[in-house]
Structure formats: C-alpha cells, structure tokens
Prior knowledge:
Keywords: DNA-binding, Phosphoprotein. The chain has helices spanning 13-27, 37-47, 63-72, 90-99, 114-122, and strands at residues 5-9, 30-34, 51-55, 81-85, 103-106.
Amino acid sequence: MSSKRILVVDNEPSIQEVAQICLETVAGWQVTLAGSGLEGLAAAEREQPDAILLDVMMPDMDGLDTFSKLQANPATRSIPVILLTAKVQTTDRRNYTELGIRSTIAKPFSPLELAQQIATTLGWKL
Length: 126
C-alpha cells in the first residue's frame, strides 16, 4: 500500500470520521481533517497533501470558494481536488470539470468504495 496523504475538508464531523477511518483502514493513507474552508486552506499549504477531498456546501466559505483560493496559491495550485457533494447533476459536474476539479463523489458515498474511487480518479494503485 502506498502512503498517500489526503486532506478531507468537510464541516460535518461524522463525514470526516467516516472518510478518515475508511481511507486509513482500506488504503493505508494518512488523513488530515479540516472542518472549514479556511482550515482547509491552511492545512493544504502546511501539509502539502497528495489530494484534497472537499465538501461543496459549507458555511462561511463553500467548497468552490475554497477551491478558487487553492488555485490562486502557487503552493497549493497543483494539488488535485475531488469534490464530495450531493450536487451531482450533469450540469454541476460539467461546471466542476471546467473549473479544474478532478472529479466528484456523490454524498452519501459508500465508505468501502471511497478509497478506490479516489485512487481510480487519480490513477493510483491501492
């Protein structure tokens, strides 16, 4: 198993916990948690994760604003971002792709499939 580092940015503690347990247990990845867009920006710059799993709907700074700020920062611009969202209509997915977001994973997600979905999107082996 490769020791990838994933940053999970979600304001729901239960989603953070499920994602962390699944990614650490199934894939053996190191997971850093952030509860807001602002925390996520700081963690991304500090930790330099291999990928970011980012919730779209969060208070204060939503996922798209957070993504925009990640892209504006040379230190975080190249980190691949996968959105975790309930908004997965075809038009939403198209808009996300045009922005440069690698993929979307629909909420509710399957905990046992989460690591594989991320790995497949990013071309990683589990």
